[in-house]
Fold:
Amino acid sequence: MPVDDRRARFRELHARYTIFVMPNPWDAGSARLLAASGFEALATTSAGFAWSLGKLDQGVTRDELVEHVASLAAATSLPLNVDSERCYPDHPGGVAETVRLLARAGAAGFSIEDYDPETETIDDVEAAAERVAIAAEAAHSLPDPMLLTGRAENHIRGVDDLNDTIARLVAYREAGADAVYAPGLRDLGQIREVVEAVGAPVNILALPGGPTVAELASVGVRRVSTGSLLAGAAYGVLLEGARELLAYGTSRYAEAGVSGDSVRAAFSS
Structure:
């Protein structure tokens, strides 16, 4: 599917009034397996991709991310949203150039967040909103606009302040974000407050013990993603298998492995 059609499809998914699940692969193989499972869109995971390179989250260069996006966009015909962290404001050309590079690589959408790993703090809301505005202008001026998600990182960075989160999401929407996301929210009542307050499609991270997709749909959530959780689960199984081999010399871990039929169905097309 041409990238302009993917971007149009991604916008359609956000414009309709039904929820959709957008899981986060970390390489071309996981992307093809998820696409073959029936999802309507995919998203990158900054942490999962970093781990695949043997790096920690926030350690991926812009060039590495752009190459990764091109690889995943080529792997399936689904719209691809990009976890692009802060959109590399300190790299040449800044946020606007990052947006253009992601567009060229085949992204249908991308996110920009307000956490600064250099200072390990949440950015001032005015400065963060200014970056959202720059990203929005670059994304929306493309011949085939990309969809921009504004992210408030409070709840995964130790700031449990729902009022501040809502104020930030509203500011990012007003600065031009097409959708908003506050990873870490798990209380259904709080999620309802966010949905009702922001006036834009809301993404929620699916968390262990959190609301189900059906419960999230009942309060108006438009999009659900998995962040690094699928990658973390896969790496967890790998480590458990390694520990079994070292401790017992057995290979029962392989009993839960992916089936050959699933691999052939995903990889043969």
Remarks:
- The first strand starts at residue 20 and ends at 22.
